[in-house]
Amino acid sequence: MNKPERIVLAEDHTIVRKGLRTLLSKHAGFAIVGEAADGREAIRSVDELKPDLILIDLTMPKMDGTLAIQEIKRRSPHTKVLVLTMHNTEDTVLAALEAGADGYLLKDDTHGELLIAIDSVLKGKFYLSPAISGKVVKGYLEGKKKTKGISPWDSLTQREKEVLKLIAEAYSNKEIAEQLFVSVKTVEKHRANLREKLDLHNTSALTKYAIEKGLVKE
């Protein structure tokens, strides 16, 4: 008998996470080996558990899912990453795919669709929700991002996006420095880079931008 596929659930809403555990635990082929409520915890779980698959939301505390995906893929290339989110904009989908996601599913999709998606990515196939427009698929496959020039968002480094998320969550420079294990001066430099690259010159504007990009919830 084959060993069950080992899965980690990364979702900040406890009710959703527990519901996923209940649903997937009914299948003999799956074993839920861990849960995570934020992006950093998701990375730690993959480091410790080396799962076959992580099911991950994109909007989570401390580190958003897209940044977490990049780090997960860097640390554990064999772990398949299936996004399960409410975000269906072209930019958000493309960002997740470019970060290394093996599949992208929407929370509006059915339980049956979820099982199909998990099975597909575990078999090494790429999976995209049927609700995602063909335009997004075409843009991804044709490498549209590489031909239309670098947008302000694309010009941000992973660390700058991380700082932007924490700014939008109302953390002070000192608190951000403590979370990222850097100096306050380094955080101030990241803030300056964000203002310059995005042409946004106050915290309110940066916060609004972070919400628009799905880094934080309204």
Question: Mind sketching the topology for me?
Answer:
Elements: E1 5-10, H1 14-25, E2 30-36, H2 39-49, E3 53-56, H3 65-75, E4 80-85, H4 90-99, E5 103-106, H5 111-122, E6 127-128, H6 134-141, H7 144-147, H8 152-155, H9 158-168, H10 173-180, H11 184-198, H12 203-212
Parallel strand pairs: 1-2, 1-3, 3-4, 4-5, 5-6
Helix pairs in contact: 2-3, 4-6, 9-11, 9-12, 10-11
Mean pLDDT: 87
Please state how the strands of the largest beta sheet are arranged side by side.
Answer: 2-1-3-4-5-6
Uncertain residue ranges: none
**Integer tally of domains:** 2
Q: In percent, how much strand structure appears in the residues?
A: 5-15%
Count of beta strands: 6
Share of residues in helices? 40-55%
Tell me, what is the CATH class of the largest domain? Answer: Alpha Beta
C-alpha termini separation: 47 Å
Largest sheet data: 6 strands, parallel
The coarse silhouette is globular
Could you say what the CATH architecture of the largest domain is?
A: 3-Layer(aba) Sandwich
Question: What sequence of helices (H) and strands (E) makes up the elements?
Answer: EHEHEHEHEHEHHHHHHH
Helical region count? 12
> Going by CATH, what is the homologous superfamily of the largest domain?
Response regulator
- CATH level-3 fold name of the largest domain: Rossmann fold
- Computed CA radius of gyration, to the nearest angstrom: 18 Å
